[in-house]
Write a structure and sequence with these properties.
Number of helices: 4
Distance between the termini: 38 Å
Low-confidence stretches: none
Number of strands: 10
Strand content: 25-35%
Mean pLDDT: 92
Shape: globular
Helix content: 10-25%
Length: about 210
């Protein structure tokens, strides 16, 4: 809806400088996606000392993982993994590509939030454009009504599409009313590398 689109655009305003830090977009396979958001607690306060990690398929729906039968044909110019350290207000950003779909799953981006080495949350972002397939999936259904919090709204930007991926984690403190981002399994194609070795720009190799 236009209201949701405006809300997404408003949410992106505080991180325009962060997005600009990526510089010129290199030649890539697929559509560029800039994923931004905040890591907050239930009170709406930024959570200190966190790291956000993501992993996903390339634009063709292939993982860089020995368990993916198609991995030998993956896009070797794509980074597949990323990590970002949120700023003092909890904002983080990734530049990546829209992941490809592979059967039987809808498109998704896996993510973890860590704090001081401990995992606060493991989950997956989906895309609102795929709503029919997402809502029909058992994995998504397991997250209950709060699963809608995992749906990314895409907004057209310059040479990229933008998505606001706000994450609310349970820190065990506070009585605020922000709904927690639901957890989901990391899946069979979990990273077999240290994500700390990867930066937040998946469109360029380290």
């Amino acid at each position: 809806s236009s209201t949701q689109t405006q809300q997404a655009e408003d949410a992106l305003d505080p991180v325009e400088e962060l997005i600009a830090s990526f510089g010129e977009l290199p030649q890539i396979s697929g559509d560029a996606l800039t994923l931004v958001g905040q890591v907050l607690d239930v009170n709406g306060d930024p959570v200190p000392n966190t790291v956000v990690e993501i992993w996903q398929t390339d634009a063709s729906g292939v993982y860089d993982h020995p368990g993916d039968p198609g991995t030998s044909g993956r896009d070797t110019t794509f980074q597949f993994y990323g990590s970002a350290t949120p700023d003092s207000e909890g904002w983080y950003a990734f530049r990546t590509v829209l992941p490809g779909e592979y059967q039987p799953r809808p498109r998704h981006i896996h993510f973890k939030v860590r704090q001081d080495g401990n995992t606060l949350l493991t989950s997956q972002f989906y895309f609102s454009q795929d709503i029919a397939k997402v809502q029909g999936e058992r994995i998504f259904q397991a997250s209950g009504e709060s699963g809608d919090l995992l749906l990314l709204q895409l907004v057209e930007g310059d040479d990229t599409v933008l998505a606001n991926g706000r994450i609310v984690v349970d820190t065990g403190a506070g009585t605020g009313e922000l709904p927690l981002t639901p957890s989901q399994a990391e899946g069979p194609y979990y990273p077999v590398v240290s994500l700390a070795d990867y930066d937040n720009d998946l469109t360029t190799l380290p």
